[in-house]
Specification:
This protein has helices at 9-15, 24-34, 57-64, 81-95, 98-110, 117-127, 130-134; strands at 20-21, 36-41, 46-51, 67-71, 74-78. By secondary structure, the chain is of the alpha+beta class. The strands form two sheets. Strands 1-2-3 form a three-stranded antiparallel beta sheet. The chain has a two-stranded antiparallel sheet with strand order 4-5. The longest helix has 15 residues, at 81-95.
Length: 137
């Protein structure tokens, strides 16, 4: 998750111009409603989803819960597992994308015992995602 405003789009482009593929069109789309931007690290060919911080309560909670991990020796912030599950359920609900739902299934299955299901259920209730989440849990 990144806390970037539309007026800072050039800063976002400049930050990732070396070592990453980032498109101006992708940045524009992220601010025009998609809420997410894909970048690709050239050396490792790893795709990274940058989620633009929104103003709603869930987004701010997810931002506060982000975790710092190292990637290629660089400390970076990542969305928590639980918030990623919830975000993917939101994207599924908005777009109807079965890919997002399948991602959620894989995330939950591969992290059984490590995922805070109560946290997910609390937010699923507030976000109107209980049927989708219960169908996977």
């Amino acid at each position: 998750m990144v806390a970037v405003e539309r007026k800072q789009a050039d800063i976002l482009l400049d930050t990732f111009k070396e070592g990453f593929y980032i498109s101006q069109e992708g940045v524009r789309d992220a601010f025009d409603g998609v809420g997410m931007l894909n970048i690709i690290h050239y050396a490792s060919v790893v795709k990274i989803d940058l989620i633009i911080l929104k103003t709603d309560e869930f987004s701010h909670s997810a931002f506060r819960r982000r975790v710092q991990l190292s990637f290629e020796g660089v400390a970076m912030w990542f969305i928590s597992l639980e918030d990623l599950v919830l975000q993917k359920l939101i994207w599924h609900k908005e777009s109807g994308s079965e890919l997002q739902l399948e991602d959620v299934r894989r995330l939950i299955f591969s992290n059984r015992g490590r995922i805070d299901e109560q946290y997910c259920l609390k937010w699923a209730e507030e976000l109107g995602l209980v049927p989708e989440l219960r169908g996977i849990l």
